[in-house]
């Protein structure tokens, strides 16, 4: 089964392919269809934004479309940057600049607890949908560490591993990350969904 991944983020594509390809699912990007859409993320939650993107891309291409909305929620900042993670500081900042802005905003507090959240919504042409959520708990580091991953990975410290997310191998990251957790839940729900549809078609 082929799914459209409603993003141009190559990092997300790589992580999702690594987790879904072994299950027999193929992921394609909007660029593979020459499609360029600018979906304004107006939702107030990760789920609302993911659903918005999934439905718009599904309607445009006509194949099941997967959208992920994810972000970093920092306790000391009242849950910010949250759904505004990519647009933190007003938008237009590079990953490195986003990390530096975050570190500056928490430098005066000892409260470092944070979590990554990922919500995946898959919209089907028949109007059906699947929703899966994953979280990963950690702390905000004192400085950037590591060259892997993307986004806020270099400042998201995992005490149990003694590393930031950016210091993990792709396999290590997928095994504990918010997106990895959401994808495992999504894969289980997708298997159940397709099995039920197959059974209906046989009747």
Report on this model:
The protein is of the alpha/beta class and 203 residues long. It has one domain (2-202): Maf protein. Helices cover 35% and strands 22% of the residues. A seven-stranded mixed beta sheet has the order 2-1-3-4-5-6-7. Helix 1 crosses helix 5 and helix 4 crosses helix 5. The chain starts with a strand and ends with a helix.
Summarize the structure.
The chain has helices spanning 10-20, 46-61, 95-106, 170-176, 178-202; strands spanning 2-5, 26-28, 65-74, 113-123, 129-140, 156-158, 163-164. It has 203 residues and is α/β, with parallel strands linked by helices. Strand 6 (156-158) and strand 7 (163-164) form a beta hairpin.
- What is the count of β-strands? 7
Q: What's the SSE pattern?
A: EHEHEHEEEEHH
Globular, elongated, flat, extended or rod-shaped: what is the shape? globular
Strand order, main sheet: write it out: 2-1-3-4-5-6-7
Helix segment count? 5
Strand content: 15-25%
Which ranges are low-confidence, i.e. pLDDT below 50, for 5 or more consecutive residues?
none
Kindly provide the name of the CATH class: Alpha Beta
Radius of gyration: 17 Å
> Could you tell me the mean pLDDT?
91
Distance between the termini: 21 Å
How much helix is in the residues? 25-40%
CATH architecture: Alpha-Beta Complex
- Say what the CATH topology is: Maf protein
